[in-house]
Specification:
Structural class: alpha/beta
Distance between the termini: 37 Å
Number of helices: 30
Largest sheet: 7 strands, parallel
Length: 742
């Protein structure tokens, strides 16, 4: 085995305790050496907190100060716990327990249950939705699938905040929480759910913590047994601890204070699940003699990204803001964050896809690029734009738009209404396509006003609202279009996006991006109403939205793009405003009370169609930028708004002079090329682009490159083939073949 292989796959275990400290910065080293008494580590994004605490544990074990079997490190996800165990093993600290709160509690519950209660531990119900559904039915309350998810989430929130069913309505009012339905009804369902569990001798995930707390409170002998076993505790992501988890931690500790907590109040984004940063913020109050170490050296992001992140939190208000961390980048300078204003959402998605394609062409791996948005329903337009641009992508934490149950159900309903035509009474009174779609989708949960609060019901509504907006845009682009036309359009979009799963650009919500990082992050849709989200009403809810944007910004290592659209659809009223959180940070904006030196820097890029130019974008994008604004049909001169028509430069219904035989040859060639490079056919050229080529019949590169959907990159890869086909020449065998991704 070579040294390189050994160092890459099997890192060498440090040969001494002191060697464990090698490579730590001064603050991380201070954490590692602080092995006595309470320790609070305030660790900003990208500052190496996991490195600091694992080296702390390993140093203590290797120096003989800590016995490995007496150390319990807890965190919030199995992934994080697994990473911690792996790092400890690499540092020679085997035998240390690294678990989630639930995993540690379940292990103790299984061990002590026979002694504390007798018999076997009740069966654990891993999915409680069915039991919640039965509880609702017994209460005479009918819930659909999404309402069930919301009711289940509310029960979970009540339990981790130690709220009993009778107190749930008052707790909701006190916390200013937006309940997904009448709190009195939810209280009923909650009480019946608990009764059903007792009747059937089953427990749920939250009961694992509650029962462990109960046993440790009631049985001092068992509590002492646990405290003899575990004498040193480390808690990661401490800002996300719930009241119930804190209660369990207190019982584990007893009257001792051998505790190290790590967290960042600036990354508290899960309060809707019961998480609260209060335990982190009040740590020094509870432990006056605590050692507090701040990690602010950011090893992840460039100074330009860090400056913007600091600027975001400099405007924050509230208790968490008082403890904000000013990060200091340890990386070399990089590009300035790019701020882009687009005319409409499709233009924003297309512009984002073009920039991503350029980054990939410049050598940034697709897997090191992410598009981050506030809600999952925003993914559809980016799925479409990336597919049109031939860029592979993957969704994280959500199904593809057309795979979502509510979208599939809506498609079935729309297809049925289209078949029935005038015989469907549901469409009585609907005088255009959008009103027909609204009528059909109203049976699936769409309403003219969004439901209050967040949750599954809101997510479902957002997906259906996206279909309504698509119908409005479709009707605007094709006046007189029928419901059947729209169904065909939806089918075509769905088919284009069901390409084989490949490693590609990540599409993710800001919440699901927590804990991850990429070389390039595109944070999109940054308008008031989306960031902060419209249902963030209280000051604290708004501040959590600011922290959510901060999390998104700090996911970027090198390239960071922030964008918004001033109108929803092409030709719409430009009434949207960029998020208030960027006031004073993006060029041309101001914010009262901004501190000097916290500006985000960077030039502003208003994107195509806004009347402002862009620098360094290349020939293809300059040409497209000049074409933005009104794009007119080359046959009838009508303004075009639909992306497919803009590619053809004519209305779908206008006469076409396309060479059908040429179009057929191009399709055959595309199928062969797609097979050669193991990509879907649309990644070579879309049907619309092939039609545009067959209509234009370009004779030279200059005529081919300006056709929408071609551009310089595809000209280089496929231009020779296409021009040969257009000229009627035979193709050179193997010409243009390569194995790169499209």
């Amino acid at each position: 085995m070579t040294a390189a292989t050994h160092s890459t796959l099997f890192p060498q275990v440090p040969d001494s305790a002191d060697a464990v400290l090698d490579g730590l910065d001064p603050e991380q080293r201070e954490v590692a050496l602080a092995l006595g008494g309470p320790v609070c580590v305030l660790a900003g994004a990208g500052t190496g907190k996991t490195r600091a605490i694992t080296h702390r544990i390993a140093y203590g074990v290797r120096a003989g100060i800590l016995q490995p079997t007496t150390v319990l490190a807890v965190t919030f996800t199995n992934r994080a716990a697994g990473e911690m165990r792996g790092r400890l093993r690499q540092l020679g600290a085997t035998g240390v327990q690294a678990r989630t709160f639930h995993s540690a509690a379940l292990r103790q519950l299984q061990y002590f249950w026979p002694k504390a209660v007798g018999g076997e531990l009740p069966r654990l119900v891993e999915r409680k939705v069915q039991l919640v559904a039965e509880a609702a039915a017994r209460c005479g309350i009918r819930l659909d699938r999404n309402e069930l998810r919301d009711a289940t989430s509310e029960i979970e929130w009540a339990k981790v905040t130690q709220t009993v069913p009778a107190d749930y309505p008052a707790a909701v009012a006190k916390s200013q929480r937006d309940a997904p339905r009448d709190p009195a009804e939810l209280s009923q369902i909650y009480a019946m759910y608990e009764q059903l569990k007792r009747d059937r001798s089953v427990i749920d995930f939250e009961d694992v913590l509650l029962l462990t707390v109960g046993i440790l409170q009631d049985r001092h002998d068992i509590a002492e047994h646990v405290r003899r076993q575990y004498q040193h505790f480390v808690v990661d992501e401490y800002q996300d601890v719930s009241p119930l988890q804190q209660r369990l931690l207190d019982l584990w500790l007893g009257d001792r204070d051998d505790l190290c907590v790590v967290g960042d109040a600036g990354q508290t984004i899960y309060s809707f699940t019961g998480a609260t940063p209060d335990h982190l913020l009040n740590f020094r109050t509870r432990h006056p003699n605590a050692t507090v170490v701040k990690l602010v050296r950011d090893y992840r992001s460039t100074p330009q990204v860090v400056q913007l992140a600091n600027g975001l939190l400099s405007q924050a208000r509230g208790k968490a803001a008082e403890h904000r961390l000013e990060l200091v980048s340890q990386r070399d300078k990089g590009p300035e964050p790019v701020y882009t204003e687009y005319t409409d959402e499709p233009a924003e998605a297309e512009g984002t896809a073009r920039r991503i394609r350029d980054l990939i062409a410049a050598g940034v791996p697709a897997g090191e690029i992410a598009v981050l948005y506030r809600v999952n329903s925003q993914s559809e337009v980016y799925e479409q734009a990336l597919a049109d641009a031939g860029v592979p992508y993957q969704l994280r934490g959500a199904e593809r738009f057309f795979d979502r149950p509510e979208v599939r159900e809506a498609g079935v309903a729309l297809r049925g209404a289209a078949r029935a035509g005038g015989n469907d009474s549901l469409l009585d009174g609907a005088d255009d396509l959008p009103s027909e779609v609204r009528a059909v989708l109203s049976t699936k949960g769409w309403t003219s006003k969004p439901p209050a609060g967040s949750g599954a019901v809101r997510d479902r509504w957002e997906s259906l609202a996206a279909l309504v907006r698509l119908a409005e845009d479709f009707e605007q682009a094709k006046p007189g279009a029928t419901l059947s036309d729209l169904v065909a359009e939806l089918d075509e979009r769905a088919a284009a996006q069901h390409a084989p799963t490949v490693q590609g650009v990540t599409l993710a919500s800001l919440h699901s991006a927590k804990g991850l990082e990429w070389d390039a992050a595109f944070v999109v849709g940054l308008t008031e109403g989306m960031m902060p989200i419209a249902y963030a009403k209280t000051d604290e809810q708004v501040e959590e939205e600011r922290r959510l944007l901060y999390v998104g910004v700090t996911r970027a290592r090198f390239h960071l793009s922030l964008s918004w659209a001033v109108s929803r659809s092409p030709g719409g009223r430009a009434g949207r405003r960029p998020t208030r959180f960027l006031n004073g940070l993006r060029p041309g904006s101001s914010a009262a009370g901004m501190r000097a030196g916290t500006g985000g820097g960077g030039g502003i890029d208003r994107g195509p169609g806004s009347g402002a130019g862009r620098s360094g974008e290349g020939t293809e994008r300059d040409a497209r930028s000049r074409r933005r604004g009104p794009v007119r049909c080359r046959v009838c001169a009508r303004t075009l708004t639909e992306a497919g028509e803009m590619k053809l430069m004519r209305c779908e219904d206008c006469p076409s002079d396309m060479d059908e035989a040429l179009y057929g040859r191009l399709r055959e060639w595309r199928a062969d090329r797609a097979k050669e490079i193991s990509q879907p056919a649309f990644c070579v050229f879309t049907d619309k682009t092939l039609m545009a080529i067959a209509e234009a019949v370009p004779a030279e590169e200059a005529e081919l490159v300006v056709i929408p959907g071609v551009g310089n990159r595809k000209l280089t890869r496929f231009g020779a083939d296409v021009l040969a086909i257009c000229a009627g020449r035979a193709l050179d065998i193997g010409a243009g073949e390569d194995d790169g991704d499209v």
